[in-house]
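As a warm-up, study this chain.
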Amino acid sequence: MDRYAKSGVNLKLAHSVKANLPALLRRATRPEVLGGVGAFGGLFRAVFPSCREPVLVASMDGVGTKLRVALEMRRHDTVGQDLVNHCCNDIAVMGADPLFFLDYIGTGKLEKSVFDGVVTGLAKGCSEAGVALLGGETAQMPGFYGKGDYDLVGTIIGVVDRRRIMDGSRVRPGDVVVGLASTGLHTNGYTLARDILFKRMKLRLSSRPKGLGGASVGELLLKVHRNYHPLLSQLRRRNVELHAAAHITGGGFDENIPRVVRHGCTVRIRRGSWVIPPLFQMLQCGGKVAEAEMHRVFNMGIGMALFAPRKSVAAIHAQASCMKIPSFEIGRVVAGRSSMQFE
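Now compare it with the structure written out below.
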């Protein structure tokens, strides 16, 4: 064994682990991709015939402490899907279609089963979203990450025609807020959720509390973050008028809805207008968390909020139903200072 391997960085192991990459990434591509895996940079042919004035949209995110659940469950494919879907949503709310994705995996010691699981999830997420997994970086950093730990970060690039950018400037009094159901916690609030479930309530990942449909706590916590881009894309194709969209992620309702509200508009969210999943109710009760804080930390069952004129609401509900995404009319926009209120 060479000195570098003895110090904790095994290049031969890294090469061996990555040997399966071409097979794993075969479906996660697009016709615009040039070249293959292994070059210093990924190549993507930038031709956008559907755009008069194409604008690239970029976003970067991570999975947060949901990774701790994946580690303890010894299941790593779902967090890869989470990352891709989260990033797709972040640019979909701008009106963009995703093009390609880049990932970063940092770890103390590279484990083949973990690497294969994560990349399999990334490839599945990209394939289902029509996104090319163009490249990435895998860093072995012994002494920096704890035993068995790893971090996962992704960057996505998409494109939108400049005239179709959704930045909140079209939101106006009279608009309706339609909430799209989440699949669970998605990728936010896991530090608080783990504290409540495992420290306060003394549950285990294998626990199956009553009222959760027979699923284990671990299964519920690893539910994959829903990708809303296909729905938004279909609404655009059907010329359904949308004025804005907000991805309900870190910061919950309080931080994300105001990001798409301009001066002269107040968003009023109506409590009780959607079904709050049992997991959130358990967290609130078990942790004795105030309702206001629940809405600041968690998505509370709403993963995305759409702002649209009244005439578009029926079409939104119909398309969401067709794609098996529950939707609810959860609020309205009224004249007032730029803010969000619950009622």
